[in-house]
Amino acid sequence: xxxxxxxxxxxxxxxxxxxxxxxxxxxxxxxxxxxxxxxxxxxxxxxxxxxxxxxxxxxxxxxxxxxxxxxxxxxxxxxxxxxxxxxxxxxxxxxxxxxxxxxxxxxxxxxxxxxxxxxxxxxxxxxxxxxxxxxxxxxxxxxxxxxxxxxxxxxxxxxxxxxxxxxxxxxxxxxxxxxxxxxxxxxxxxxxxxxxxxxxxxxxxxxxxxxxxxxxxxxxxxxxxxxxxxxxxxxxxxxxxxxxxxxxxxxxxxxxxxxxxxxxxxxxxxxxxxxxxxxxxxxxxxxxxxxxxxxxxxxxxxxxxxxxxxxxxxxxxxx
Amino acid sequence: xxxxxxxxxxxxxxxxxxxxxxxxxxxxxxxxxxxxxxxxxxxxxxxxxxxxxxxxxxxxxxxxxxxxxxxxxxxxxxxxxxxxxxxxxxxxxxxxxxxxxxxxxxxxxxxxxxxxxxxxxxxxxxxxxxxxxxxxxxxxxxxxxxxxxxxxxxxxxxxxxxxxxxxxxxxxxxxxxxxxxxxxxxxxxxxxxxxxxxxxxxxxxxxxxxxxxxxxxxxxxxxxxxxxxxxxxxxxxxxxxxxxxxxxxxxxxxxxxxxxxxxxxxxxxxxxxxxxxxxx
Lengths: 319, 280
Description:
CATH topology of chain B: MetI-like fold
Order of helices and strands of chain B: HHHHHHHHHHHHH
Strand order of the largest sheet of chain A: 6-7-8-3-9-10-12-11
Helix content of chain B: over 70%
Domain ABC transporter (chain A): 9-255
CATH topology of chain A: Rossmann fold
Low-confidence stretches of chain A: 269-281
InterPro entries (chain A): AAA+_ATPase, ABC_transporter-like_ATP-bd, ABC_transporter-like_CS, Oligopep_ABC_C, P-loop_NTPase
Number of helices of chain A: 11
Oligomer: heterodimer
CATH class of chain A: Alpha Beta
Distance between the termini of chain B: 19 Å
Protein name (chain A): Peptide/nickel transport system ATP-binding protein
GO biological process, one term (chain A): peptide transport
GO molecular function (chain A): ATP binding; ATP hydrolysis activity
Number of domains of chain B: 1
Low-confidence stretches of chain B: none
CATH architecture of chain B: Orthogonal Bundle
Structural class of chain A: alpha/beta
């Protein structure tokens, strides 16, 4: 893959608009609004934001599970929606979903997910060799073969199921992995094992989109970060720069909300002022964060991302 | 399966329904071999004989053997239930799966078609179609019934498919590059198996009743015999007024019992498949 060296997956002006309702009352919701980012080889990009900010929607679009309303997703400079062969695409790009319980078909035993991969992508591997590989990846994610194979979903815990899904992704040796809140169902002790497994995938050259709302995990895992608010990027750049010098009021608020072990919650957090930025003031063309921003006034027109220092972009007119 | 059998044989409704159904099924299978006569419409004896040792259920006004008519009629009833109900189930499943899984304009068109068929009164449609066909056999009758009975099944299957396809395991199958047909058949359909079985049972009962209805108003098969035709003839020849009870009671009772047994089976299966309804 010489032509794609260094470049793996790039998202350009990605937009998703959901419409609901019928002919008479059409509602549109802009879930993702012109998002750009790029993940290079052996790089982990954290996509953070609150619930409903469009993180999972972006992940689904990158897995071709949702069609974008606008923009492009380029895998090694090739539009993924132009790759018609699904087997070819999914042998390179894989995902792990949020909810391990609904990721398995309750009718079948859980190890069916491995059999399906072999059928779809690894026909050439012999059965005995395949079993060896499965055992190996299960060990890697801290699972005991006897504990999980030949079981039904209701016989396993959420953590075990989630690790099975990660093992599945590891088996595929993919180029791009979309990991959507994969630790949300895990307890603290297994969380680290799972994150380490992801890091080992990065070491063998995969690009990983790490979707999370946990900023400390994002910091632990990633090289770059993209902060989303209501479908738009408010701040992005190298993880060190964004964490050491957060510029956007929303990012600052997020970083301030990380619980610290050594101190109680302090009152000096940025608070939302009593400022008339109610919904009446919110109109097209103004900053989306206006109703919660302590710095905002009615002159805050919708900002574009701008470079504030090397590898650090912010979308705020006050910066 | 083991679990299913365990709960099935603990459920009284299921057991009652299954026993009655099996009784009639066995009677329909071996009955014609027990009867002394081969042709249910043949003149075999004096007319209007009450049950006796040669004619176990007596004879009709035309001297036909009621038992022979009854067992052959049972056969056609089961045939119509199986084929008419089966056809309706298959069409309903197909349309429901396609509409639910594909979505978009395919869904819109299929659902429009379905809704139109729901709105048209089925009985009127059946009468018109049946009246247009000069010769009608049991087969044609079951096809007509099958072709008009599927809309509710299609709608219900579509709704279930819509809910199942938003589950993550369907997404996981998609990113495993499984083709759509395989996803529907292997991921979605098995999760609806219990529902499909129940739909088939209801369609089976519905087809039997629809056929009896058509027979009774004179639009039944022009050849052969069925339980509905027996009822129609007995009414036409005043069996009720003349007290020839052995002519109309057996088919009437059999239809009622078969349909009731199917409803019992349906309720029983619902309790077996749905853990929340299981009797402790």
